[in-house]
Amino acid sequence: MSDPHEFILQHISRHITLSEPDIQRFKSVLRYRKLRKRQYLLQAGDVSLYENFVLKGCLRAYTVDPDGTEHIVMFAVEGWWVSDLYSFLTGTPATQNIDALEDTEVFSIEKNDLEKLYQQVPEFNRMFRILLQNAFVAQQQRIIGSISQTAEEQYTSFITKYPTLEQRIPQNQVASYLGLTPETLSRIRKQQAKK
Amino acid sequence: MSDPHEFILQHISRHITLSEPDIQRFKSVLRYRKLRKRQYLLQAGDVSLYENFVLKGCLRAYTVDPDGTEHIVMFAVEGWWVSDLYSFLTGTPATQNIDALEDTEVFSIEKNDLEKLYQQVPEFNRMFRILLQNAFVAQQQRIIGSISQTAEEQYTSFITKYPTLEQRIPQNQVASYLGLTPETLSRIRKQQAKK
DNA sequence: CGCGACGTTGATTTGCCTCAACGATTGTGG
DNA sequence: CCACAATCGTTGAGGCAAATCAACGTCGCG
């Protein structure tokens, strides 16, 4: 863990096996970055140029609607990949912001480098296909929840699915992720305490 | 278009280029199936053994909650892939149903065949990675909509994004997709007609 | 210390759901 | 080919879950 390369390689080795030269190629495109709490990794309006892997800390991706309310698209803690994928793929300005909820360290891969990597080391297609499959399934479940469950049920699902996140993330951020107001979430928690 | 193989190969050629032997390999794993309107392609409880490509017609994937209400996860028309991905990946019983809203024709690929295909023709990793990226982005936008928009805004987004779907799908199915009751959607449309 | 971020609680409003009834259309079996 | 049931959309009345608006306490930090 002292070496951040160790951490990311371990994660990758869950899905694919790389030769030594491929490992070197991969390492060479990683750019290490530190973010202070509240610091932006990406601001809406800029183009998302990087795919980012969280080494340590916690990020949030969110949109801001016309009346200034924030809506959290996803959280990303250690071992998660994050970007505004639409912006990253199309080169159009990002609609999402990404910033740090804690002091955070990431590896960033530039788009060109990632595309070269896909060609030089086809295994990466396989890995990201698998990661995307998992993310797709998780998102689908979130959608089903949001159209079929009450606020309380959604909150219960959330803490069951992400018990550790619940610990380190402020309540109002969780509320925003679930599409609730902080007041409503507070009342739900009060309800549940009576048991 | 008379030959269904033509149709699917054309779709695939948007993303990858295959050699003649690879094309043959691919064709050999496709299983052609016809579904009558209302017929199931997958029933909750069964394991999703196939990834399915829609040649003609329209499918819906949906869950049924404890009190019997259906919630539409996605529609799939010509050119779309559909399965209960979680069940397909893990081999656990499906939580989703998939059935036909119209008479429909599909190509199905069995899981084992698809995995072999990934190994024999690595380009398919690339293609499905790209398709999943697009699906991921679309889902993310649906999530943002569902936690930040009013019912009317969501409906407007839907008909803007999928103008053709709006034509061929019953209103109550659209309502279910949006997480609304048919009554609410009917009232929204009445509202909008006043303009 | 004083300010801003965060959570809580109360009073009120509102958007959407529920329940119920009805017309139009489709399709199906006698 | 008609009669009947089922499906689908519409409209109305009433209820409820969650939002809004507002006030207040606590904590941590510059």
Characterise this structure.
The structure is a homodimer of 195-residue chains. Chain A has 195 residues and is of the alpha+beta class. The first copy, chain A, has a domain at 4-122: Sandwich (Jelly Rolls). Chain A is 50% helix and 22% strand. The first copy, chain A, is built from nine helices and eight strands. A four-stranded antiparallel beta sheet of chain A has the order 1-8-3-6. In chain A, strand 4 and strand 5 (70-77) form a beta hairpin. In chain A, helix 8 (171-178) crosses helix 9. The N and C termini of chain A lie far apart (40 Å). The interface between A and B is medium-sized, with 30 and 30 residues. Chain B binds a DNA duplex (30 and 30 nucleotides) through residues 150-151, 170-172, 180-187, 189-190.
Layout of strands and helices, then pairs:
The structure is a homodimer of 195-residue chains.
Chain A: H1 4-12, H2 20-28, E1 31-35, E2 40-42, E3 50-56, E4 58-64, E5 70-77, E6 81-82, H3 85-90, E7 97-100, E8 104-110, H4 111-120, H5 123-148, H6 151-161, H7 163-168, H8 171-178, H9 182-193
Antiparallel strand pairs in A: 1-8, 2-7, 3-6, 3-8, 4-5, 4-7
Helix pairs in contact in A: 8-9
The structure holds a DNA duplex (30 and 30 nucleotides).
